[in-house]
Amino acid sequence: ETGVTQSPTHLIKTRGQQVTLRCSSQSGHNTVSWYQQALGQGPQFIFQYYREEENGRGNFPPRFSGLQFPNYSSELNVNALELDDSALYLCASSWGGNRPGELFFGEGSRLTVL
Amino acid sequence: TQLLEQSPQFLSIQEGENLTVYCNSSSVFSSLQWYRQEPGEGPVLLVTVVTGGEVKKLKRLTFQFGDARKDSSLHITAAQPGDTGLYLCAGYYNNAGNMLTFGGGTRLMVKP
Questions:
Q1: CA dihedral in degrees (A23, B9, B53, B18; nearest 10)?
Q2: What is the distance in angstroms between the Cα of B16 and the nearest Cα belonging to chain A?
Q3: The pLDDT of residue B96
Q4: Dihedral sign, Cα of residue A65, residue A73, residue B44, residue A8
Q5: By three-state DSSP, how is residue B83 classified?
Q6: Distance between the two ends of chain A, CA-based, in angstroms?
Q7: What is the pLDDT of residues A70-87, one digit of tens each?
């Protein structure tokens, strides 16, 4: 148990739709990072939020966007879904923003795009 | 784009055997981590190495960081079925502060 919870755990969407994934960070953590893990691959960094601001972004298009709330929970939004967006989306919480440290991962939200 | 390569991708061994997993990059890490991920769960941190040449042990697992901080290895002694899972190395690069870059993973199966 990492104390990081994600919802929903599984969902199915069709191409062109929009999806919102949610993450509650571990108590005391102020940083949330989002990763996309395609089947059989390692996680790919999407972006990080630190104190409600985006604090770094990986090689993902603008249709991937996010939010962090005052309680440090976070949302990942994906617009105009494509088949290749099918993946496990992982949220990780940590303390310290730019100071690398241990990431505590949730169990992920598995998105299937048909 | 910095690439972090793991080998082998898949490994199936019998209980009691030893194994080594490798993680290589062309760029220098400021620190490197190893995670283990089981089906339906997120990755869980096993170890962080920071200093070139550093060796850390966690029970039957031995982690080594290369002298040049561009590579790492994970050695498991006398593997057990409970070691089955996806082993991921992940590194922070000097020029990409807060972005943790993961390798593709090594999927290990230990048969009883």
A1: 110
A2: 26
A3: 67
A4: negative
A5: helix
A6: 32
A7: 999 999 999 999 999 999
CB of A77 within 8 A of CB of B11? no
d(CA B26, CA A31): 29
Cβ atoms A95, A101 nearer than 8 A: yes
Nearest to A92 by CA among A52, A58, A48, A42: A48
Residue of A nearest to B30 (CA): A100
The answer on pLDDT for B87 being more than 80 is yes
Side-chain half-sphere CA neighbours of B8 within 13 A: 9
CB contact under 8 A, B104 and A90: no
Does the beta-carbon distance from B99 to A48 stay under 8 Å?
yes
Which chain A residues are closer than 8 Å to B92 by Cβ?
100
Report CB contact under 8 Å: B42, A55.
Answer: no
pLDDT in the model for residue A32 = 94
Note the pLDDT of residue A97. 67
Q: Where are the beta strands (DSSP E) in A51-102?
A: 53-57, 64-68, 74-78, 87-94
CB A91 within 8 A of CB A37: no
B40-62 residue pLDDT tens: 899 999 999 999 999 999 999 99
DSSP per residue over B35-68, as a string? Answer: EEE-TTS--EEEEEE-STT-EEEETTEEEEE-TT
For residue B79, the 8-state DSSP code is -
- Does A43 lie at the interface with B, CB-CB under 8 angstroms? yes
CA distance A57 to A66: 11
